[in-house]
Specification:
The protein is an alpha+beta fold and 173 residues long. It is built from 5 helices and 8 strands. 30% of the residues are buried.
């Protein structure tokens, strides 16, 4: 998935009054204001009240469900014929701001803004993206994302996400 595809979806949803927040790898890049790596998909957070319309629009734009064993009504993947995929994360807050449905985003986590190819976008806030990225055993891409966010925002990298140190060389004297 490239930046043009991401922005076409983001702008298309905005034109239809479907607010979304960028999550995942594209969120990291938006927070950094630059593309750091290739992205297989676009992760989108959407309020439950807008989820049906989001699904309708994605279907109109050629995206179809890609069932997985872990698919639910609040977390599922759709794919276009060309291979682009969107991972949809549905949530709902009550009047007090507590998550009552779907992906358990803390309300203040959806307050970030970033930039993708010159376009300002709503996204997960930097401190929450960092928390999310350090909450599970990392893959190499996650280590790079965590390192980049830490450098940009001054976060301390937890030991679980620091690069492994090479064994010291034995003293040969």
């Amino acid at each position: 998935m490239n930046a043009d595809e991401v922005l076409a979806i983001y702008r298309g949803l905005a034109a239809e009054n479907v607010p979304v927040w960028i999550d995942g790898g594209w969120c990291v890049d938006a927070l950094l204001g630059r593309r750091t790596r290739e992205h297989a998909d676009l992760d989108l957070a959407v309020a439950r009240e807008h989820a049906r319309r989001l699904g309708e629009l994605l279907a109109q734009w050629g995206y179809a469900p890609r069932p997985r064993q872990d698919s639910t009504d609040w977390n599922y993947v759709v794919a276009a014929g060309g291979g682009a995929t969107v991972d949809v994360h549905v949530f709902e807050f009550d009047d007090q701001g507590h998550n009552v449905y779907g992906i358990e985003y803390p309300k203040d986590s959806l307050t970030g803004t970033g930039v993708i190819a010159g376009q300002e976008v709503r996204c997960v806030a930097a401190e929450w993206m960092f928390r999310f990225k350090t909450a599970y055993p990392p893959k190499d891409k996650d280590l790079a994302d965590v390192r980049a966010l830490a450098e940009r925002y001054g976060f301390e990298i937890p030991a679980t996400h620091r690069p492994a140190r090479a064994d010291p060389q034995p003293d040969r004297t």
